[in-house]
Structures are given as structure tokens and as C-alpha cells.
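Hey all, sorry for the wall of text incoming. These are the two entities for the joint prediction.
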Amino acid sequence: MPPDAVASSRRSRVAHALAQNVGLELAIAMLVLSVAIYCAIYYAAQGLLPGGFELTTTVNNTMPLVLAAVAQTLVVLTRGIDLSVGGVIDLTNAIAAIGLGDSLAQMVAVSVAVLMVGAACGLLNGVLVAYGRLQPILVTLATLSIFQGVAIRVLPQPGGQVAEGYTAALANPSGPVSLLYAVLLALIWWGLRRTRLGIGIYAIGNDESAAEAHGIDARRTKILAYMLGGTFSAAAGLFLAANATAGDATTGNGYTLTSIVAVVLGGVSLFGGRGSAVGAMLGAFITTMIVNILFFAQIDPLYQAFYEGLFLVGAVLLAGGIGRLVRRS
Amino acid sequence: MSQDVPAVEAVNLVKSFGGVRALQGASLAAAAGEVHALVGENGAGKSTVIKALGGRVQPDGGEIRIGGRQVRLPAPPTAHALGAWTVFQELTLLPGMTVAENLLLAREPRTRLGLVDRRRLAANAESVLAGLGVHHIDPRALVEDIPLAERQMVEIVRAISHDPRILFLDEPTSSLVEREVVWLFGQIRRLRAKGACIVFTSHRWNEIRSIADRITVFRGGRDVGCFTELSEEDAVTLMTGQRVETFFPPLPAAPRAADHRPALEVRNLAAPRLRPVSFAVAPGEVLGIGGLAGHGHRELFLALFGAGRATGGQVLLDGKPVRLRNPREAERAGIALVPEDRKSEGLLLPMSVRDNLSLALLRRLSRAGLLRRGLERQMAGGEVQRLKVRTASLAAPVGTLSGGNQQKVLLGRWLLTDPRVLLLYDVTRGVDVATKHEIFELMMRLAGEGRAILFYSSDAEELAHLGHRVLVMREGRMAAELRAPGITAEHVVSAAVRDAA
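and here's what came out:
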């Protein structure tokens, strides 16, 4: 075939990156927009701009959702969905609250143990999905209830005590130190995307049988994705305990749905194989900003869910529309 | 041809899917340094044999031998390890990933840290493509963003880039244009010269003739013969078990334009990529539309069916102007379109043959808003018989039918609306020669009934034999008008490319 004139019209690397990450770019735009609206409303209500305290609390309150969103992303990318995220957070939060103790050694040991509990929860999900050939939505709906039940058993009443040092390390109340963890997460994601597992996760989310035809072990990849997801959910449970300085076996329930919201706002496709955990992390911050905006706009808390829903529908419609426009051009 | 052990051999393969027996004792032997064509009707088992040899399907019985040794191929990677690579008919590319990621999946270049080196990934993919003479595909583009033909080329490049000793290609040319087919055949000849064994399926007889050393014919899940020479007529006879005299049925007598008002008249019809075109089709006339892909025929057909945006001009049916703003208006006016991509543009694969047939005329089959099932069954049954659709029952999901039979169901749906004008858009693409022959006969019968037929085909041979006239489009306008008798495929092709190169 003769070399073609088409070759000259080839897009540059940057142009490709821009066109292929529309979801991420939209998430950045939405975050900037929501922060701007938040600042404006805050200023209208308080007569001054939000400062360090607001930044710190926002970061500390959002970190568990950031982690849950990463967990959800891992599973959604494989064309699954993890409804048990909330259950794993409940369980790990409960274990953390009663187990962390005061000594550094114990804190480290229990934290690692809690992460392993999360991985074990993910392993159960992954094995049922990969070997049981069951639908992820059914498996994780069932394990959600199981994990919630065990969590209540571990910590029947809210309580426990988290040492100050632990809170300072994960959810420092005097500065937005936890942003470092978000940066670390983004770096971990950057690396994961360049491993065999990362490529496998995207590949099976795109087309499982095609991926298998080219030597990707779909079952192993799925199980590892769920395990890694469980581990990140457990980390969310730890951050939640650190921020609340105590534990509650029902505190994670809302995270199942909000993690899905964050994933969608972050441009990760629920049909699998497309999107990035970095987008989902931004989606988590957007979700928090929406709640903050509604709070300062003095919306009756009773109607908060209503407006959150409206906002979500609007954002998804907008993202879909812009995405299509960019595709066409 | 070498007389020693065949490079690849299938012996009495048996395979059932559900209750359907796809293979019942299928055998095939292909030698090193040979290009071996597999032909047969859709559903004769060609694809299943290739899937079995490629490790994608596990046969229930029989043997597979590679290089004379019996092997078991539980998954494609096992076949890859033996030097056997396959280009499957339904592509195995990952749409949301880049061309480079797809080409080098599971063999990505790594950095010293063991992470994938994305920069070198694109560069390596570029050199793989260039090494095989492909320069127009961008390795950084997502597979879902490139055209179908390029996707098919990526799939082929991926297989060839492993330097296979055995290469299976299942309908590799179905979405390629002429120039890309030339490229592919060049690659196949190169591999053959190196001693590789190539097994491929195709429904295009000119391709088989030009490159195959031997031809194995399949019918009903088993092989019925292996030949070095085979005429089109003999192939159809073997494939169907019924004697066929001429592959292209004779045209009914051409209607004399003076005797009739045109059934369809188009005046200065314009659309994006379609310059104003004018032409007329008489009742009983078959008007072929030719031209290279992207030269406006698709837009013309869509505009005539109300599915595309017409920006100007007029369409008259039997002398009366009609408005075609959407397919419903076109259907009411008596225009039917049968598209080439039956999966995405026509049939509901999980639904039954009966449901698919009645879809276009639910209103006529209903009373007080309720569907009259008895009437529906009667009508669908009649149509299935008329078109010789091979299906287990009216209730069988259309997805279980072979490609050619699916195409007949789609045709049947539109015939039930009793259209005045039938638009056939590349309906024989991916359809086996035997079913093609049936579709041709049906076209001639429909023309004989006085319907006007406008048909586009990517196969110039079909246009040359089946049109009373052929209009060749180039750059959105009618570049030439050819009249039967005496049209040849060369006329059509040269009219399509003249001045364009």
C-alpha cells in the first residue's frame, strides 16, 4: 500500500491525550466550577472567603470517599459494580475503632490487618464473580448485607476510641495534610495503569473474551481487581475512623452509592474499560462540594437529597453531551 | 505442493451449540506453503472449524493435528505457542484502548522498573505497522475511533506481526476496500513464500480464484470436497446440493421508459457529501449504483429512506412528490431499505423470526391495539417459505440463524409491506455465494412484479450482471451511466476511479 496523505493529518500526542480523556477534563471543569460556586455562596453568607479551616475539613471529610471511589473504579473498569463498598467500610471502621489502641506498633499492625480484612472481602467477591459466574451486582448486594451484619456484631454500638496520633497521621485537623494521600493515590494509579494487572483490568472491561484470546487471564485479573478494591475500601474505613476519632458500624452505608456517583462524575464508564481513578477522585471532591454548596445555600436538609439528585442528573447529561460533541469533531 | 505431513489438519471434528450441530465430521488438511480457501454457505461450519483450530471453541469430538502431532487447544494462547494465529471474523480488538495497546497486548515494552513504557509502546506499534507496509493507521488512536476497515487491518497486522507458521483468516476482507485487499494478498503471498500455511474464508469468488491454491467446500457442518480448480457454478452446486446453471440469473426484459411513468424519480437531490443528483427508475427496472466507498451512495440511500438529511431537491413516486423526513414517511410512501449491516441496522437478534418479520407492519396486524397472533403467524410462515429461510421454527431467535438467512428475514420484513421501491444497500456483503444466488433470483422476481429496485453493491461483478442500468457515483455525483447488455465489472470500476486517483 502506498504511503498515504492521511498520515499527515495525524493528531499529535497531546491532541490524542486531550481527545481521549474528555471525562477527566470535564471532571476538572466541574470541580473548578463547583469550587467557584461554593466560594461565591460562602462569601455571600459569611462576608469572607473560605480559608484553611474549610480546606482542611473538606479534605478530611472527603478522603474516605476518595478511597471508596478508587475502590469502585477498579471494579467498574472490569465491567462490574461493587455494592459492598459500604459494607467493607462498615466492617473495617468497626474493627479499627476497637482495635487500634494507643501504641504505634499496635496501630500499624491493626491498620495492616484491617487492610487485609478488606482484601479478604474483595477476594470473596472476586471468587464468587469469577468462578461462580454470578453477576457482580448480585454478588456484592449479598456480601454487602453479610459485611454489614458482621460489622454490627463487631461493634454493636457506636464507640471505640481512636488515638490522637492516628487522627493526626490520617486526618490531621490542623492542616490539609491528607491531600498528600490523594497525590500518593494518583501516583499509585499512574503505576498500576502501567502494570500487567492494570492493562488486564482495562482489557477485560473492554471485551473479556477478546482479552482472553490474547493471553489475559480474566479470572485472575477480576479477583485481583476486587481484592485491590476491598483494600481501598478498608483504607476508607481507616480514614473514616481517624476523622471521627471513633467507630460506627453503619457509618459506611452511604458510601456504596456515593462512590458510584463519584465514579460517574469522574468520567468512568459504567460499561467498563474506560475512565481513570483520578477522575473518580475528582468526582469525590465534586460530590463534597455539592453538599457544601447546598449547606451554605441554606437548603432545607430534608431536601438535600432531592437537589443532589437533580445536580447529578444535570452533570451526567452535560458530560454525555459534551463528550459526544468532542467525539464528533 | 508438498506431499509430506499437512501443516494443520482437522479430522472429523464434531461440535454442537445448544441443540444445533455446527460441525458433524468436518475435516480439513492444509500444507505448508499453501493458501487454502474454505467456502460454504453461512452456517456450514467454516467459522466453527477456524475457531476450533484457533483454540476459541472446544470440539466435542475429532482430532486437531499441527505439524502431524495431535494437539489440544484449550485457549488461543496454546495455539499461538504452536505458531498458529487467527484473525477471527468478529474482531477481537479492545475498542476503548489504543491501536498500539491492542497490537502489543501482553507483550508491551517495559521500563527498567517493570512498568509499561507508553512512549515506546506507540513507537514500537508504529514500526510494526510500517514494517508491514501500513502507514495510514495512527497507533495512538482508540480502536473505537477508527473506521471498521482500519480495525480489520489492525487485527490482521496483529496476527501477521507474530510471523505465524499457520495463519487462519475468517472473512478477512469483509470490510476492506480493493486497495487494502491488494495489501493483504501481498502479505499472504509473502508468508506463503516463507513456507507458512494460510487458511482463509471468503465469499468473494474473485479473491478465492486469485489467491487460493486449493479450495475445500463445506456443507451442513462437514467437508464435501477439496479442489484445485472450481467454478462458481460448481461451488454453489456443492454448497447447496442443488444444481445451479448460472450464478447470475437473467435480467427480466428491460421496461421501456417511454411506456411508463417512472416509479421513482429523483430531481436534484442533495445531502451532505451528495451533490445534487437526478435520475429515474421505471417500474420493473433494476438500477445499480456503483462507486467507491465514501463517494455519496450511502448518503443517497439514506436520504431516499428519510434516514439521512436531504438538503434540497425533490423525490417523486409515480409522478407525485413525496416528503421523506423520516423512515416512517418513506415506508408509508412505499419505499423500503434493506441495509448491509443487518445486526446494527435491522434485526432484533434475540427476538424470534416471527417478531422480526411482523415488526414493520404491526399496525396492520393489530385490531383495537392488540396484535392478532394467528394472522401474524400465518403471514410470517408464508414469507419464510417464499424466501426459503432456513430456520428451526418461527419462534427461533433470529440470532441463531446463519448470516444469509438473517438477511433474508430482513428482506422479508420489507417485502411484507409491499413496497413500490426497494432500496438494497450492499445486501450481499458477508453473505455466502449460495444465498447470494437466492437473493439475486428474488431481486429478479421482484423486478418482474413491477417494483423498482435501486441497489448498491461493493462488488462490481454484481452490478455488471444485475442492473438494467448502472449509475456510477464519484465525489457525490453521477459520473457515468452504463446500460445492459454488455456491462462488465471493469467498466464499473474504471468509471468509479477515473480521474479520482
